[in-house]
Structures are given as structure tokens and as C-alpha cells.
Amino acid sequence: MLAIFKKEINQFFSSVTGYVAIILFLLANGLLLFVFPDTSLLDTGYANLDPLFELAPLIYLLLIPAITMRCFADEFKTGTMELLSTKPLSGWQIVMGKFWGSLVIVLISLLPTVVYYFAIRQLSVDNQALDTGGIIGSYIGLVLLGAVFTATGIWSSSLTNNAMVAFLIALFTCFIFYNGFDAISKIPAFSGGADYYLQMAGIKFHYTSISRGVVDSRDIIYFISIIGLMLYLTKLSLQRKLWQNG
């Protein structure tokens, strides 16, 4: 598993594409949070990082599928997946190696945003004005969200040998997970109780809950369950494709 983990990271950063993806993520965050007036942190009138945690999930909808789209698609396209399956590695080791390698790349893209916390803290009149507990909770939520999107992207890449198709499947699935259930719950036909349970089925409900600074075990269990489900589906998909090719 460690070999696949290292290979995934080295492969991502061995091309310009990897650096460009992370730079564009940071550039988009920087422009939205410090330049564009409608979303600028400097124009809110008080010290907070709420715009970052509202915008980052939407940017991750594009970034993470771009990171994961080649994980298995290129392996199938080049024929190296059959070679990989002959190594003394279980299906779970292959899947987990890909997952953790991609997730570390996502975390690397997130790490520089910590600078925003210290920047806003220094710019605020009262250095204690920032809700540090809420910010820590929001970062935990963002890491868990990134893990769900990564697992979904890995699964999408296992379905096809076309990286662009994998990107589109991951983008659509992540969008449904994050915003789809919340949007459906607003349909009048589901008002009166069903809307609340529909919201609970979506990621946005649990991400918003953690972002308040209260790390509820129910939210953690939800994220871990979705991650586990997507990784299990990935393993099944790999077994099916290898059996068909065999």
C-alpha cells in the first residue's frame, strides 16, 4: 500500500498539471477572499473566515475530481492495472493506497489557507475577535468533505478508462452529495418533516453542523460511512473490471 501511496503522490507532482491544479485552487481562493468585493473578507466589517468555508467546497467540486480522475482510469488505459493486480497486494491495499495518496494532495492544497487565519487575526482590531473554535471545526469539516470527495473521485475513476469521463462522473456525484439533497428538500412536496431527513442525507447539512464549532459524533459517523461506502464500491468496481478483462 505504501508503494502505491508514494506512486500516486509522485505521479501527480511529476507533471505540470498537478502544480497548476493546486495553484489555481489557491489563486481562486485568494481572488474571492481578498480581491472580489462581493466575497472579500476585508469588506465584511468583522473578523471571520466564513467566506472561505462557504467557497472552498464549491472550488473542491472542481479541484478534487481533477486530482482523482486519473487514479484508475489511466491504469486501465495503459494496461498497468492488470500488472498491478499480479503484485502481492489485496484489492483493499490498492484502493487505500490510491485514496490516501490523493487525500494527501488535497490536504497539501488546503494547508496554505491557514495563512488566511493569521492574516485576518493580525488585521483585526482585537486579536481575540476570531472564533478560533468555529474555525477549527470548519477545517475539520473541510478535511472530512475533501475525504468524501476524494473517495467519490476514486470510485468514479474506477468505472472508466477515460479520465475526462471520470472527472464528469465525480463532479456530478459530488455535487449531488453536497447540494442535491438540500435542493430537493426545498421542494414544497417534501415540507412538513421529510425535508429535514432529506437535508440530513446530504453532506451540506453535516458540514454546516461541524462548521459551527461543535464536532458531533453523528456528523463524524456520517462522513466515515460515506467514505467507507465509496471505497467499498471502488473495490467492487475493480474486481468486476479485472474479472471482465481476465
Descriptive account of the structure:
Helices cover 76% and strands 0% of the residues. The model has no long low-confidence stretch (mean pLDDT 84). Helix 6 packs across helix 12 and helix 9 (163-185) runs antiparallel to helix 10 (194-201). The relative contact order is 0.13. The chain is mostly helical and 246 residues long. It has one domain. It has helices spanning 2-13, 16-34, 50-68, 73-78, 80-85, 91-110, 114-123, 132-157, 163-185, 194-201, 203-211, 217-245. The chain is built from 12 helices and no strands.
Write out key terms for the chains shown.
single chain; 246 residues; mainly alpha; 12 helices; 76% helix; globular
Topology overview:
Blueprint (H helix, E strand, L loop, with lengths): L1 H12 L2 H19 L15 H19 L4 H6 L1 H6 L5 H20 L3 H10 L8 H26 L5 H23 L8 H8 L1 H9 L5 H29 L1
Keywords: Cell membrane, Membrane, Transmembrane, Transmembrane helix
Pfam family, one: ABC2_membrane_2
Main location: membrane
What is the gist of this entry?
The protein has 246 residues and is mainly alpha-helical.
List low-confidence stretches.
none
* Cα distance spanning the termini: 23 Å
The helix fraction, in percent, is over 70%
Q: How much is the radius of gyration in Å? A: 19 Å
In what range is the share of β-strand residues? under 5%
Number of strands: 0
The largest sheet is: none
- Which geometry do the CA atoms define? globular
Number of helices: 12
Arithmetic mean of pLDDT: 84
